[in-house]
C-alpha cells in the first residue's frame, strides 16, 4: 500500500488528504478540499485543511461498521463534522463553506466497494481491464467563465480575477440542479455519490486519485496502466515528479489550460494481494 499527498506550493496548506488502514478490513479514503482563492470568504473559522482531516477521520470510523454501506458512512461523517462547525458558530449555509470531493474504498469479505463523489477518481485494474470512476459534472459548470480564465496566462492578475469570478459561480452551483455535487455541510448529498462493487479475487490493483494526480493521464503523460506501474514501483513518487515537471513546462497554461498552475496531488495505491 502506498499513500502520499503533496501540496501545490510550499507556502500554502495542502487541501488534499489521504488515509488508509489494513488488516481484516482494508479501507481507504481520499479527499480533495475546495477552499477557493484566499480573496473569497468561507463563513468557517476552521478552514479547509481542518475540514478534510475531520471528514476523513469521521468517515474512516463510520466505514468500520460493516452493517452500513459507504453512502451511509459518508452521510454520518458529514453530520459529525457539521456538528463540529456548529459548536464554533460557523455559517453552515455560506456558499464558500469548506467542501470536498470524496473517494472511499472498503474491502470486506470477497468484495471491494467504492464510492466517488466529485471529480476525484477511483481506478481499478480488474483482470487487466481498467475501471475508472469519476464525476466530472463540475467541468460543465460555467463554461464561459472557464474560457475567460483560460484566455489569460496563469499567474497573471487578470487570470486570478477571472478565476475568482469562475469560483464564485462554481460555489453558487454546488449541489444545485444543473450544477455538481460536492460534500459540504449537508449529509444527504452522500446519496449523489457514484458507487459500485468489484469481486476482490479479480482486482489486481486499485488507486484513489485527486484531480492533481489524474493530470498524469489528462496531460497525456501516460495511460492508467502506466500510472499503476509507477505507483507500484520502488519509486512511486515519480508520478508526482512527472506531473510537476509537465506543469513547469507549461507555466502559463497554454498547452493545458487550468485554474491553477500547480494543484495539490494525492494518491493511494493498493495491490490486490494486500486486500
Ligand atoms: Zn468551521
Write the layout of secondary structure elements.
Elements: E1 2-6, E2 16-21, E3 26-34, H1 48-63, H2 70-87, E4 99-108, E5 111-117, E6 121-126, E7 129-133, H3 143-150, H4 157-172, E8 194-199, E9 203-209, H5 211-218, H6 224-231, H7 238-249, E10 265-271
Antiparallel strand pairs: 1-10, 2-3, 3-4, 4-5, 5-8, 6-7, 6-9, 9-10
Zinc ion binds next to loops.
Give short descriptive properties of this protein.
five-stranded antiparallel sheet; 7 helices; alpha+beta; 10 strands; 275 residues; binds zinc ion; Phosphatase 2c, domain 1; globular
What does this structure look like?
By secondary structure, the chain is of the alpha+beta class. The protein has a single domain (2-272), classed as PPM-type phosphatase domain (Phosphatase 2c, domain 1). It is built from seven helices and ten strands. The protein has helices at 48-63, 70-87, 143-150, 157-172, 211-218, 224-231, 238-249, and strands spanning 2-6, 16-21, 26-34, 99-108, 111-117, 121-126, 129-133, 194-199, 203-209, 265-271. Strands 1-10-9-6-7 form a five-stranded antiparallel sheet. A five-stranded antiparallel sheet has the order 2-3-4-5-8, with helices on one face. A hairpin with a 4-residue loop joins strand 2 and strand 3 (26-34). The longest helix is centred in the N-terminal third of the chain and has 18 residues, at 70-87. The N and C termini lie close together (10 Å). It binds zinc ion. Zinc ion (ZN) is lined by residues 44-46, 85, 88, 90.
Amino acid at each position: 500500500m502506498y499513500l502520499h499527498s503533496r501540496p501545490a506550493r510550499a507556502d500554502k496548506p495542502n487541501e488534499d488528504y489521504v488515509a488508509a488502514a489494513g488488516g481484516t478490513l482494508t479501507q481507504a479514503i481520499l479527499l480533495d478540499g475546495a477552499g477557493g482563492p484566499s480573496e473569497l470568504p468561507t463563513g468557517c473559522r476552521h478552514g479547509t485543511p481542518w475540514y478534510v482531516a475531520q471528514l476523513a477521520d469521521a468517515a474512516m470510523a463510520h466505514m468500520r461498521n460493516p452493517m452500513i454501506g459507504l453512502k451511509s458512512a459518508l452521510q454520518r461523517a458529514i453530520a459529525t463534522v457539521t456538528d463540529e462547525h456548529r459548536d464554533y458558530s460557523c455559517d453552515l449555509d455560506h456558499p464558500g463553506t469548506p467542501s470536498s470531493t470524496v473517494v472511499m474504498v472498503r474491502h470486506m469479505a470477497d468484495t471491494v466497494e467504492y464510492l466517488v463523489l466529485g471529480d476525484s477518481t477511483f481506478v481499478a485494474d480488474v483482470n487487466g481491464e481498467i475501471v475508472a470512476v469519476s464525476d466530472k459534472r463540475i467541468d460543465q459548470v460555467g463554461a464561459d467563465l472557464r474560457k475567460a480564465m483560460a484566455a489569460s496566462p496563469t499567474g497573471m492578475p487578470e487570470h486570478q480575477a477571472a478565476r475568482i469570478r469562475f469560483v464564485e459561480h462554481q460555489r453558487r452551483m454546488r449541489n444545485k440542479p444543473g450544477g455538481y455535487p460536492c460534500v459540504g455541510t449537508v449529509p444527504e448529498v452522500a446519496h449523489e455519490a457514484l458507487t459500485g462493487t468489484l469481486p476482490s479475487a479479480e482486482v489486481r490493483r486499485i488507486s484513489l486519485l485527486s484531480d492533481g494526480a489524474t493530470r498524469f493521464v489528462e496531460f497525456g503523460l501516460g495511460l492508467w496502466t502506466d500510472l499503476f506501474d509507477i505507483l507500484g514501483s520502488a519509486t512511486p513518487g515519480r508520478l508526482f515528479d512527472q506531473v510537476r515537471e509537465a506543469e513547469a513546462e507549461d507555466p502559463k497554461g497554454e498547452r493545458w489550460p487550468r485554474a491553477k498552475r500547480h494543484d495539490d496531488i494525492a494518491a493511494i495505491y493498493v495491490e490486490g494481494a494486500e486486500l
